[in-house]
Amino acid sequence: MNIIEEINVFQLTDGLPHVIVQVRDDSGETGFGECWWGIPTPGEPHRGGAPIVSAVENLIKPNYLGKDSKQIQALWHQTWDHLYRYGDGGIVTMALSGVDMALWDLNARRLDASVLELLGGSAHQSIPAYASFPPLRSKERVASETRRAIEHGYKAIKLHELETGLVEAAREAGGDDLLIMVDVNGHFDIEEAIEFGRAIEKYKITWYEEPVRPMRNIELIKKVSDQLPIAIAAGENEYSLGDFERMIESNAVRFLQPEITKIGGITQALKIGHLAEQSGVPLCPHNFRGGIPLYASLHWGFSNPMTKWLELPWLPEGIEFASRIPNPKIIDGCVSPPLGPGLGVRPDLNRPGAS
């Protein structure tokens, strides 16, 4: 019958943390997904993901247990309708993301297929990928990590820096051929955002990401966009289909960046991807976690003809994601279509740091 018998949530904290969801049906098949991991809390790795774990256990799980695991679309929409008064984003869709992702993994594994095959197959032979750096905050570290990323085959990087000199350091280390994106995570007010954008323009920036706070204020993003020649990218903090419709209609954003662990998983990602197709806006799935969400983003990204870039998290030596799942290989600056079965990767829940 393929009835969902159990849904478990685990936090992996032996490294940069994850919130992992495991779904098991009555045939014994299992699937894995991942929710957004929460806001880091120094010294307390469980705290950031704890509210999302609670939402899975208390809001999402009761709507899925005992139901047919093959009915991914119906279960998503029934749960969405039931939980709408809790909100149409935030923790609700973060929690829903992990369960939905796990069902896609489970169903593809049952068929001995990849999730990409279930989505209709690949629309690309390869897709350019950029190495997404964490904040480094020093010229020496920016330069050394830029050179290391290039040595590993990358032709594009993304900085999370707030000083013009650090962007300059990446350009000097990478040379004229390196593509550079700059993400400031909504650090600036509108005047500061425009000033910083003008200051980094000379370094031939590919895009300027989330330039202004509040990060979801589309009107302010549009004002920044209107004042700068640099392309604007945003979307990682949007949640619903309506959010992305408004963002696209505003003409504020050149590159659309939904986060698969925040929007409700693969089921919602497909609908947002269709919006990108209809509007002609390049799709660039946002992701700064290795393992399950990275590979889910790859399966989704390769299924959509509008996918322009894929984000691969880049960590300095000595820092690891708790899942220990390696990133895909980079060949000539690109990644190849992911393989199955399912999402093609599984976390080790028997290792230290799983709870």
What can you tell me about this protein's structure?
The strands form two sheets. Strands 4, 5, 6, 7, 8, 9, 10 and 11 form an eight-stranded mixed sheet that branches. The protein has a three-stranded antiparallel sheet with strand order 1-2-3. It folds into two domains: 4-113, Enolase-like, N-terminal domain (Enolase-like, domain 1); 118-335, Alpha-Beta Barrel (TIM Barrel), CATH 3.20.20.120. The model has no long low-confidence stretch (mean pLDDT 96). It is globular. With 355 residues, it is an alpha/beta fold. The protein has helices spanning 50-64, 72-83, 91-110, 115-118, 139-151, 164-174, 190-200, 218-227, 241-250, 266-279, 292-303; strands spanning 4-12, 18-25, 30-35, 127-132, 156-159, 179-183, 205-209, 232-234, 255-256, 310-313, 334-335.
Key descriptive features of the protein:
TIM Barrel, 355 residues, three-stranded antiparallel beta sheet, alpha/beta, Enolase-like, domain 1, 2 domains, eight-stranded mixed beta sheet
Instruction: Identify the overall geometry.
Output: globular
Assembly type of the chains comes to single chain
Helix-strand pattern, N to C? EEEHHHHEHEHEHEHEHEHHEE
Mean pLDDT score, rounded? 96
Quickly name the level 1 CATH class of the largest domain.
Answer: Alpha Beta
Strand content: 15-25%
> How many helical elements?
11
Helix share bin = 25-40%
Output the radius of gyration.
Answer: 20 Å
Distance between the termini: 30 Å
Largest sheet: 8 strands, mixed
Look at the structure and name the CATH superfamily of the largest domain: Enolase-like C-terminal domain
Low-confidence runs (pLDDT<50, min 5 residues)?
Answer: none
Domains (count): 2
By CATH, the topology of the largest domain is TIM Barrel
Number of E-type strands: 11
The secondary structure category is: alpha/beta
CATH architecture title of the largest domain? Alpha-Beta Barrel
